[in-house]
Specification:
Strand order of the largest sheet: 1-2-5-7-6
Distance between the termini: 51 Å
Shape: elongated
Order of helices and strands: HEEEEEEEHH
Strand content: 25-35%
Largest sheet: 5 strands, mixed, barrel
Number of helices: 3
Structural class: alpha+beta
Length: 169
């Protein structure tokens, strides 16, 4: 598991140079997700000048610590949902509440450790479920073989006892 975390850290560090800065346009409407406006210019050749053309990104905010108006640094990360592919790295300039009064933004190592812990818990649940299913299949197979053996010997299985209301209580 430690090697998986190290490999993920190395992969993420490779993309660490793509840090972008932007202003939070919408926060608090979606859980753990904010909308960030990134600056951008577009050259218009007919009039020979640049026009503002901002880009908007949906960004993962793991602890809901970002507020509308904050200037934040974002980095690409693994895909959180269909449209969320970036994560808040840190707050550059807070707007409103000071940073000390907000939940801290987790570091890359903390986020990767959390993902690894969730994956380990999921693997444990999956292994337990598979063991339970294998046990049930083995019991069904043993019961089926017992019925076959009884049928092959020519003996009739004992009749099932009818269940009455007194038996249930």
């Amino acid at each position: 598991m430690a090697s998986e975390v190290a490999a993920a850290a190395a992969n993420t560090m490779r993309r660490a140079g793509k840090e972008m800065h932007g202003i939070v346009v919408s926060a608090g409407l979606m859980d753990k997700t904010v909308k960030v406006k990134l600056g951008g210019l577009r050259w218009e050749p007919r009039v020979q000048k640049y026009f503002k053309e901002p880009r908007f990104k949906l960004v993962h905010d793991p602890r809901n610590s970002v507020r509308q108006g904050d200037v934040v640094a974002i980095t690409p990360t693994w895909r959180v949902s269909q449209h969320v592919r970036h994560v808040v790295k840190h707050i550059i300039a807070p707007y409103g509440d000071p940073i000390d009064e907000r939940p801290p933004i987790p570091t890359l190592e903390e986020r990767e450790a959390e993902v690894a812990a969730k994956r380990a818990a999921k693997d444990e649940r999956r292994a337990a479920r598979r063991e339970e299913q294998a046990r049930i299949r083995a019991e069904e197979k043993a019961a089926q073989e017992a019925r076959k053996a009884l049928k092959a010997s020519g003996k009739t299985p004992p009749p099932a006892q009818p269940t009455t209301i007194e038996d249930v209580d």
